[in-house]
Amino acid sequence: xxxxxxxxxxxxxxxxxxxxxxxxxxxxxxxxxxxxxxxxxxxxxxxxxxxxxxxxxxxxxxxxxxxxxxxxxxxxxxxxxxxxxxxxxxxxxxxxxxxxxxxxxxxxxxxxxxxxxxxxxxxxxxxxxxxxxxxxxxxxxxxxxxxxxxxxxxxxxxxxxxxxxxxxxxxxxxxxxxxxxxxxxxxxxxxxxxxxxxxxxxxxxxxxxxxxxxxxxxxxxxxxxxxxxx
Length: 230
Fold this sequence. Notes:
Blueprint: H1 5-25, H2 29-53, H3 58-85, H4 100-114, E1 122-123, H5 127-143, H6 145-148, H7 151-166, E2 170-171, H8 181-201, H9 206-227
């Protein structure tokens, strides 16, 4: 029975993503974002459950990627599609550019499943973090409607995030094997700084959290590389 628990949690991730997509197509982007958060919680705990129960499998890995493709690949594409649809220079075909995020998310997940370098950390921005960033935009639009309503900015975000998804930038994983400060210092620093930013700026903090995540990752792995030199 226990071997089915991680896959059941993964399916919950998929189900939450499906519901979120329904709301996204209806234009209720903030509600969709809450289901993304729920999917992210399930995505975090399915891997943890697999490690604790020692029931990792190839099927579970593939199922996880398929669920992520819906929740963290298709979902952000739909949200960007809707944002471009209501942007200042929107046309009949322009909003479909948003689905480049979906395409590059698929490429990123395919690379992850076949890249032996990504057993502990990531090469390229992970899809959940990218999706959280995209889902923050409708909330930021409440305070900065002209900014988030800019077609040029939205296309730029689509291009930059698509690149980051398949880039060779090494990004640390947030999965914890233990609570040791020495082994997880960079992760704890990121969580503390992120909590402060979110406490001060609310949803407007998410873009800064994304930049912080990438910057700390670059510094962390550059430091490791320097430390390994004779």
